Amino acid sequence: MITKQLTKLLLASTLLLGFAAQAAVIKSMRFWQSPESTRVVFDLTSPVEHELSVLKNPDRIVVDIPDSRVTVDLSQLEIKSDLVKRVRQSKPPKEGVLRLVLDLTKSAEPNSFSLKPYQEYSDRLVIDLVDKKRKVIKPPVVDGSSNRDIIVAIDAGHGGEDPGARGPTGQKEKHITLELAKELARQINSVNGLKAVLTRETDFYLSLRKRTAIARQHRADLFVSIHADSFKNSRARGASVWILSTRGARSELARWLRKQETESELLGGVDTNLDLSVYEKPVAQVILDLQMEHSIQASLTLGEKVHNEMARVAPKMHKKHVEEAGFVVLKNPDIPSILVESGFISNPQEERLLKTSDYRRKLASAVKEGVIDYFKSHAPDGTKFANLYRKNVYHVKRGDSLIKVARRFNTSVSKLKQANKLTSNMVRIGQKLVIPSS
Ligand SMILES: [Zn+2]
Q: The LysM domain covers which part of the protein (predicted)?
């Protein structure tokens, strides 16, 4: 009965050369929930082959694993998932094959792959279940007012099956980054005119491109990725701030232009800040080039401010200046982006510091101060920050008087005099007048 309804799926599996005789054991099962998918992880004693089938009425996924057995008590699983209701063992299709059934709450599209042992993890079989119905791309919310918040995308590095670096006492980078990102978001949101958006708020895996895509979807004005360093020498220490290298930028430009021929979120997509699809390729290249140059310059200016603020609270900075690398997560031609390495988790003292909420608060505050400082002088048009902090300066021309200038900028003579600390109504040609914000 079942076989007739089976939808065979591609299986990426490892051949068990030389290991075939020994049955693999599924010793535990873990679940990660992201906003649109569930990741199911089987922890194994050795790599396995597997076959997936999708069944309907009721929705379920059948996993067949030859030469395997399961030692975990399936009735006692802690299932953190919107999609998986329960996991049970079912009658094997033939001798020696382990058949597991994932009963689903609704239909989901599976994608599976194997992972090699890493840190404390052994061989793993991963099944990603994507809730297709929930994967609706929301149209970007454009705040058309001329007083919008500046959007700061905050990206907690790693997550889920990707723990990142690990400290001497076992502290995982993915947890440090999430705590720090949440603290930074809280502090950013407490500033009038700034609004934080987190790429992830819980413990799940996000690809690097997905992280920047989320930022772009929210029309972020700034992207801050949070990480913690590690090195084989445990004495290495110090926080650092990174921006995209020129080389990384160049290869990214080439990638965007290649993508221009296909669909892309930047070049003409729905949620784009920069629609290049209307231009001929050479023109698009020049525009993108300028945009990237601007983005890197902005990242550097911001990065320096954040670096200087962090130097006040961190026991040590790893380098004297902002550093450059080709990190994928920084490859945003349209969003100034920095990566903050909060310290070396591999260093016992810094691991201890990063574990304390007090230190994380100080570090987050330093990053926030750098962001505020940057946007006070570089607020995008139409933002609350621009209205609050941008000082419009007018150069007095021949024939100008204070009354004329006041009228032109919709202000009063007394406000002009106050803003410029003027004692008389006299102005001279070339004089700089600060125009008070209305
Ligand atoms: Zn990292």
A: 392-435
